[in-house]
Fold Bifunctional chorismate mutase/prephenate dehydratase.
Amino acid sequence: MTKKQYSLDEIRLRLNELDDELLKLLSERRGLSIEVAKSKVETSKPVRDAAREQQLLVKLINNGKDKYHLDAPYITKLFHTIIEDSVLLQQTYLQNLANPQSRKPLTRVAFLGSKGSYSHLASREYFGRKNMELVELNCEHFKEVARTVESGHAEYGVLPIENTSSGSINEVYDLLQHTTLHIVGELTQPIEHCLVATREVRLEDIKTLYSHPQPHQQCSEFLSRLEGVKLESCASTADAMQQVQEMDRDDVAAIGHASSGKLYGLQSIQENIANQTENHTRFIIVARKPVEVSPQIPAKTTFIMATSQTAGSLVETLLVLQRYGINMTKLESRPIMGNPWEEMFYVDVEAHKDCEAMQNAINELTKITKYLKVLGCYPSDNVKPVIPKLDQ
């Protein structure tokens, strides 16, 4: 007997059915993740169990290969995403229990730029995970974001702090020196820069290109190949796109996200223009009051310190972290305004501020530094994937 040949319409119909089944199963799995979080409240077990994740991945890879003819990289990538979602879901559940006052029907969030800016997209991603309904307050500059939260006009502010391509965003680091706000969360977002315009135009016809200074830096290699193009800076990528929309000319374009461009009636004319294919920006979430972090959740602590102007003083502080087994993920220096040649150091560590090691480290650092202030302790957004160890 010859095998029945299915038409394209029949194949697509079956694919649609399978996609619906997958969505149903993913929803059911999410529900079970919440049940796991509830059980961990009673047992005080940490959110992550690396040994179990390792066993799970190995079992899935072996079953996928033997039963379903699926390769290891495909299964690994798929379940890393599922596990990351489960971890973040459980973290949110535990954080809501630890901070019941933060659950409000409406949450006001301040961010840089108009709707469609990268800060706006980050705001929706972060608070979307927490099922919060947002009142969105767009600001013209970073200081306005901070002032909006400090004054109580917003509960939270979203600030970009560093990018994998252009590095640290110094204006935000300098702002953190002088604000009373606390860091209560973080989010790392992929940044997908493209060139957008009102209509399909040739690159060689573009005379002026609008964007925020950060995308100009992050796309510098592509921009260097455009001859005679003038770069104009805007408060945000969204403001740049709005400017191009209003001008409605064939010789202007903007750098931004393709989906944001659609909000302004713009189309993408050139994609993937960033210097690095893996282009990510880390955002911090700030609020007037610190957040309580469940000890079951992987946490980060950010603090600033000023050391004495003697040889080896910075090294001495770093040795304290090493002695207590605290992993430092970021060290940034910025000048102290009004104190020439003196610097403030910003430090991110993977540790809960209330754990014994971190408390001991802070006590020692306070004695050997001129100034130390904890800016915040918050759940870590970076869910590091477990790498399955397969038998060779």
In short: The chain has a mean pLDDT of 90. Residues 19 and 25 are 10 Å apart (CA to CA).
